[in-house]
Design brief:
This protein is of the alpha/beta class and about 240 residues long. It has a single domain, classed as Nucleoside phosphorylase domain (Rossmann fold, 3-Layer(aba) Sandwich), CATH 3.40.50. Helices cover about 30% and strands about 30% of the residues. The protein contains 7 helices and 12 strands. It has a 5-stranded mixed barrel with strand order 7-11-10-8-12, surrounded by 4 helices. Strands 1-2 form a two-stranded antiparallel ribbon. A hairpin with a 6-residue loop joins strand 4 and strand 5. The protein is globular.
Length: about 240
């Protein structure tokens, strides 16, 4: 087994152990949960910084799941290194988000078509304009089809990726809602930009864990263990991405 250590020393793994398609929750314990409950014969390939990563099989195909931490800088490091140094082609974020839209309820699934953001992560590219953070269309289409087959109602639209969890601007949420933002989270834009820059595929599938305006919320254990519909959609989408 040839262990490769990433330049940031965040991943130390055998490249052959990591699948071409990776599901990525923020919480490494959720990665462990997905591996133990959905993958056959899961093997842990990364324990560095306790950012657990596992590979197993799902319906006969090799799929990995690994945590990415909180915020754009963290997901930017892990996704870049998986794409660039470990041969990953598709990353599907499976995470939690705060509901914004009137029709979005706690436990609903949101598939992020694009991500508005206040992050300056994309400044590094010196793009002559505003670079739109968008999902890969094939993954997006497959996720919508998977939701339909599973009889899961999934809202498709724009999310907002915030650089801060505690926002000192009390009017921010109302402005997001005016522009049709479905949910608020902290990673999708960074993942989408990284994939676009490297010519790879990315998608963010989210479960609403709380609602900004109603105050309804799930507790930490419920967030870790109960997002089954999101996980199943993501697994089916990852499986489809490995065709051919």
């Amino acid at each position: 087994m040839a262990i490769k250590e990433s330049p940031s020393a965040c991943i130390a793994a055998d490249e052959q152990q990591i699948a071409k398609a990776v599901l990525m929750p923020g919480d490494p314990l959720r990665a462990q949960y997905v591996a133990e409950h959905y993958l056959e014969n899961p093997v842990c390939f990364n324990t560095v910084r306790n950012m657990l990563g596992y590979t197993g099989t799902y319906r006969g195909k090799k799929i990995s799941v690994m945590g990415h931490g909180m915020g754009v800088p963290s997901v930017g490091i892990y996704s870049y290194e998986l794409y660039q140094f470990f041969g990953v082609e598709s990353i599907i974020r499976i995470g939690s988000a705060g509901g914004i839209g009137d029709d979005v309820k706690v436990r609903d699934v949101v598939i992020a078509m694009g991500a508005s953001t206040n992050s300056h992560f994309a400044d590094q590219y010196q793009f002559p304009g505003q670079l739109c953070a968008t999902a890969n269309y094939c993954l997006l289409k497959d996720a919508v089809e998977a939701a339909e087959k599973l009889s899961v109602r999934a809202d498709v639209g724009q999310v907002f990726t915030a650089d801060q969890f505690y926002n000192d601007n009390p009017n921010a949420g109302e402005m997001y809602r005016k522009f049709g933002i479905l949910a608020l989270e902290m990673e999708t834009a960074g993942l989408y930009w990284t994939a676009q820059r490297l010519g790879k595929k990315a998608l963010s599938i989210l479960t609403i864990s709380d609602h900004i305006f109603t105050g309804e919320a799930l507790n930490a254990q419920e967030r870790q263990d109960s997002f089954h519909e999101m996980m199943e959609i993501a697994l089916e989408t990852a499986w489809k991405s490995l065709e051919g």
